[in-house]
TrEMBL record:
It comes from the Bacteria. InterPro entries: MPAB/Lcp_cat_dom. One of its GO terms (molecular function) is oxidoreductase activity. PANTHER family: BLR2777 PROTEIN (PTHR36151), ER-BOUND OXYGENASE MPAB_MPAB'_RUBBER OXYGENASE CATALYTIC DOMAIN-CONTAINING PROTEIN (PTHR36151:SF3). It comes from Rugosimonospora africana. This is ER-bound oxygenase mpaB/mpaB'/Rubber oxygenase catalytic domain-containing protein. Residues 15-245 form the ER-bound oxygenase mpaB/mpaB'/Rubber oxygenase catalytic domain. Pfam families: MPAB_Lcp_cat (PF09995).
Amino acid sequence: MTSDLGLFGPGSVSWRLHSEPILLLGGFRALYLQALHPLVMAGLAQNSDYREDAWGRLNRTTEYVATVIWGTTEQAEAAGRRIRRVHERLRGIDPVSGDFFRIDDPHLLRWVHVTEVESFLTTATRAGVVLAPEEVDRYYAEQREAARLVGIDPLTVPASAAEVEEYYQGIRSELRLTRDSAAAALFMARPPLPYGLGFTPVRLAIGGVAALSVSLLPAWARRLYGLPGLPTTDLSAGAWARALRGALAMLPVRYRNGPYREAALARAASAASTTH
């Protein structure tokens, strides 16, 4: 068995944070945030089959993140190469100017990256995961490796909570709700469900997850969606997120861990045994 512990390893904040199943909720939050950038949303709408294959896309995205966090170095690098090959041949059309733009424009990729990692971290901490300020900053710094994999210069990526806040302040003038982003937001709240599940309580659960994801957005993002940015929303969202984390903690270990994490933990145990 290879002892390659991948890009992060057992001492990293990334391994600690991504052991939390609540990060799936963070992924939904990131999608709602990402949709507020008009070019990112236009590129997705023009190049993606997310409406026809919503669950397949979710599975592929989840597997990619798991590979980057828990996979070996080669698995993570290979996953990054696949993403870069796909992105480099895709183009979008700016719905306002009519100009073409590259899907792998670093400015757009950086928005997707920052919103993803900030959503993971914010959702986890709002759900009760305790991280010291220096651990928060270390997570952002570690995740520069994930940014590198998709073709972003790591030195241009925020590497601390203060830098993330500064980044958001600088990009907010570009953000707005468009027809594409509104349609995507509604779609995420009511996606087509397989196996007839749309006629079961699963439909209500999906709607609840969507509502909680939106409630966890920054107040300024909620206002862009035409929703209240009140502090009471933040308080109730945090309470619901903590309750959901508690419920997920009762799932069997095999469902909480997943195959990539199980393999990573086995490699870490093997590496530790050879050093003693």
